[in-house]
Amino acid sequence: MKKNILIVYAHPEPASLNGALKDAMSEHLRAQGHEVDVSDLYAMGWKAAVDAADFPQRDAAARLRVPKDSHAAFAADALTNDVRAEQDKLRRADALILQFPLWWFSMPAILKGWFDRVYSYGFGYGVGEHSDTHWGDRYGEGALAGKRALVSVTAGGWQPHYAPRGINGPIEDLLFPINHGLLHYPGFEVLPPFVAYRSDRLDAEQFEQTRAALLQRVDGLWRDAPIAFRRQNGGDYELPSLLLKPGREAGGERGFALHVAPAGAV
């Protein structure tokens, strides 16, 4: 079945490993008959910082209040053209793929700025009723519910450096704010990430192996099981405190792992 995929790509060098993986995915998906949008943030000259210019119709004499001004601009369809174009891409997309290098344990600033600006109030957050039984449409609900997301990231370190006992911390923990906070929050079903390690040391054979492994993951966009993040309004959390209810963990989980349902949990 024909799908629409949005690839948001953040690397300043087109001839980089990230650029090659982005090209491989877009070519592969188009060859299968899918529609592919690519937001190449560096090539677009994407403005990363949120400021008053993002809300052209606001009262320039008033104090800038980003959530309030963002909400008013979204409701009036008065966001800037670049932001509206990216929101339209997200609305069309059945799946979102992020392709970026892991820089200082996170994403490049330009990609963070894409989320800061595109996830306006009323689109990425601040949706749904807030009551004692339903605390907004988020974490499994929201404007992007029903869509899938995949993070494809390159890391310069060795895989053991990102293992549970590795000095950099588990890769699942490093990517949790992205997978859970940026993607699951507005409703995406988030697939386990694809990570290419030792990214600046791949020879031609290793590149082909990495490319093939990524395309296999892309082929599983609608087949593979997503990360079992708990749904905020699914009964696992006390409302309105949003604390995980006692006894919901399988045993021994702490921190981020608490917010992933144990295997076999309903």
Secondary structure layout plus pairing:
Layout: E1 4-9, H1 17-31, E2 35-40, H2 41-44, H3 66-75, H4 81-92, E3 95-101, H5 109-118, E4 148-154, H6 171-174, H7 176-184, E5 189-190, E6 194-196, H8 204-219
Helix pairs in contact: 1-8
What CATH first level would be assigned?
Alpha Beta
Please give the largest β-sheet.
Answer: 6 strands, parallel
Determine the strand fraction and express it as a percent band. Answer: 5-15%
Number of strands: 6
The CATH superfamily bears the name Flavodoxin domain
Instruction: Name the shape in a single word.
Output: globular
Question: Gap between N and C termini, in Å?
Answer: 29 Å
Secondary-structure element string: EHEHHHEHEHHEEH
Number of helices, counting only DSSP H or I runs of 4 residues or more = 8
Uncertain stretches: none
CATH architecture: 3-Layer(aba) Sandwich
As for the number of domains, it is 1
Annotated CATH topology: Rossmann fold
Backbone structural class: alpha/beta
What percent of residues adopt helix (DSSP H or I)?
A: 25-40%
Radius of gyration: 19 Å
Mean pLDDT across residues: 95
Short descriptors:
6-stranded parallel beta sheet, Rossmann fold, alpha/beta, globular
Protein described:
With 266 residues, this protein is α/β, with parallel strands linked by helices. The protein has a single domain, classed as Flavodoxin domain (Rossmann fold), CATH 3.40.50.360. Helices cover 30% and strands 12% of the residues. The protein has eight helices and six strands, in the order βαβαααβαβααββα. It has helices at 17-31, 41-44, 66-75, 81-92, 109-118, 171-174, 176-184, 204-219, and strands spanning 4-9, 35-40, 95-101, 148-154, 189-190, 194-196. Strands 1, 2, 3, 4, 5 and 6 form a six-stranded parallel beta sheet that branches. β3, α5 (109-118) and β4 (148-154) form a beta-alpha-beta unit. α1 (17-31) packs across α8. The longest helix is centred in the last third of the chain and has 16 residues, at 204-219. The chain is globular.
